Prior knowledge:
Elements: E1 2-6, H1 7-10, E2 11-15, E3 25-26, E4 30-33, H2 35-44, E5 52-53, E6 65-66, E7 71-74, E8 85-87, E9 92-94, E10 98-103, H3 110-119, E11 133-137, H4 139-157, H5 159-167, H6 177-206
Parallel strand pairs: 4-9
Antiparallel strand pairs: 1-11, 2-10, 3-5, 4-5, 6-9, 7-8, 7-10
Helix pairs in contact: 4-6, 5-6
Amino acid sequence: MVKRYRLDEVAKIEEGKIVPKKKYFTNVGVPLITAENLKKLMLNGDIEQLPKVNITFNKHFKCAPVPAKTIILTKANLKETNKYIYQCETEICIANDIVAIIPNETIILSDYLLHFLRWYQINKEWHHLYQISIDIPMLTIQHKMVQILNKIQLLLKNKESLMTAVEGLPQHLENFSTQLENHSKSLHHGFNQAQHLYNVMQYKIFKGELK
């Protein structure tokens, strides 16, 4: 059974607040995500390297803490194909150039919503997020779909390191350089096929064509 919802019916959408002054930053605290920090986070994934704030000082500045499993986006450039979308593993604070989507996981899994937002083409400004329609199956079905998409995504995430490792082998094993070169080409083709499979599955799942 699939039911159609508006995004704001199944998730809370919050704007970030202003960035606090430097005196409120701490070595141990809640990571602060700005648009610039989000780009860095997408590249290296190390949230511990980001600035942190002490939210106990919330009365002195506007702070927007959001829980783990929140999905965050930059307010700008949402129309771009390579828009920045990130799922938080811990509690964070968001700055005024970030918007957070906090899913109601009794209706929609955070992972399911994450894959949907990566697939969905946003043709307007971020305020349009409230009106996005999404067809949502039962949680058990979502879980099965998410398992498959996550496995493919994890494989693609490790593409660069795996390709670098394989391509670096010929210089150490000269007698096998031809075989390794062919293996490298096959591996590259396999990753392209995996990306194609991921794109096709996203389309079929979110268009309701996957039976």
